[in-house]
Amino acid sequence: MKWLGKFMKCKICRSNSNEIFNAIIINKYKIDYFKCDNCGFLQVEGPYEFEEAYRSSINNSDTGLLERNIYFSRKISVIPYFLFKKDGNYLDYGGGYGIFTRLMREIGFNFYHYDPYTENLFAKVFE
What we know:
N-terminal domain of TfIIb; alpha+beta; four-stranded antiparallel sheet; 2 domains; two-stranded parallel ribbon
């Protein structure tokens, strides 16, 4: 592994994380990536570009948003049904427009929504 000289504390286990590479994102931000020596967690310094990256929640070329949410709500619903409490509370962290949260609630699970970057359009009362 190439070590570029920078390090930071791991956000998971607080061990040292060394810079292993960097990349340009959104065609203008240089982002440094760090890998934890202890647990292997890969993290970035920052992030600094979230507000710009999430100005629009749907990419113009994304034509499968609804189909993906329907597909994953059907696949994921077996997990709380068989492995956890059916009447437990669940969080869709980074839930976008609230489509997945709404679908999981309609299946019968107590899902709640959280996303500070996107307006919750479909599950407003479940934030």
